[in-house]
Design brief:
Length: 254
């Protein structure tokens, strides 16, 4: 994916990435019709997916089963902490500063001698590695992997986590992921789902979940475009542009 998108910038990269994910998903679903099948070997097993997926087996932890969630919880927490640590180390490293430079101004980054092709490919590779680690854990937990689990709406859901938390902010993305996950799995099904019946309406509020997320994103972009926890540099720039208190933004001299 990295090579064909190297000439693209900004929003176009995001659009192509989302489109490529949809293409791969459709190919995986139709692989039982000979798209990815090699002879009698079926790579993705079509819509049925890959099942069963072996459970994780780690020393010093209880046996990983469907009913016992404790080892799954501790493993997921450990993986999340490792990913956060890796992201902080990458951000403060030479390659991380190169990523930030390309994100802010690719032309200036090229003029400073940053090899944009190699740096962009490393960004794709790192994202794929961390995503693959998370996908492996998820597949082992639910015991099956198929393309229907990763629809376009799921990609938008992940993108909403990033925008809500704050672009470029590691802790902001963590908070955004926790907030939207809680809203999606607890707040809407358990708390707000009884609101329509109390108003005399007959519909399931959980079916409007993504509409609710879209509404929240619009509110965030209007009231707090920098996100819940913005990057420190962006936060300083935003405060500098908007001004503070009664101090004038521009001083007028007579």
């Amino acid at each position: 994916l990295g090579f064909p998108t190297l000439r693209l910038r900004g929003d176009y990269i995001a659009i192509v990435t989302l489109a490529f994910g949809e293409i791969i998903g459709r190919i995986a679903v139709n692989s039982d019709e000979g798209v990815l099948g090699i002879g009698s070997f079926n790579l993705t097993n079509g819509r049925s997916g890959i099942t069963p997926v072996d459970k994780i087996d780690l020393p010093f932890l209880e046996r990983f089963t469907t009913l016992n969630l404790r080892p799954w919880y501790w493993t997921a927490l450990a993986l999340a902490l490792v990913v956060v640590f890796i992201n902080f180390r990458l951000r403060d490293s030479r390659i991380g500063r190169a990523w930030i430079a390309i994100r802010e101004d690719e032309v200036a980054a090229v003029s400073m001698g940053i090899p944009t092709v190699r740096v962009k490919l490393l960004a794709y590779a790192m994202g794929a590695a961390l995503g693959g680690m998370a996908g492996t854990f998820l597949g082992s937990y639910i015991n099956v992997v198929n393309a229907d689990q990763f629809e376009f709406s799921f990609s938008i859901f992940v993108l909403a986590m990033i925008i809500l938390g704050g672009l470029g902010s590691i802790w902001g993305v963590v908070v955004g992921a926790l907030a939207l996950s809680y809203i999606n799995t607890r707040l809407i099904p358990d708390v707000f789902n009884t609101v329509p019946s109390k108003l005399g309406l007959d519909f399931d509020l959980t079916q409007l979940g993504f509409g609710i997320f879209g509404f929240l994103l619009v509110i965030m972009m209007v009231l707090r475009p920098q996100g819940l926890i913005p990057e420190k540099r962006h936060q300083a720039e935003f405060a500098e542009v908007t001004g503070s208190g009664d101090e004038p933004i521009v001083e007028v001299r007579k």
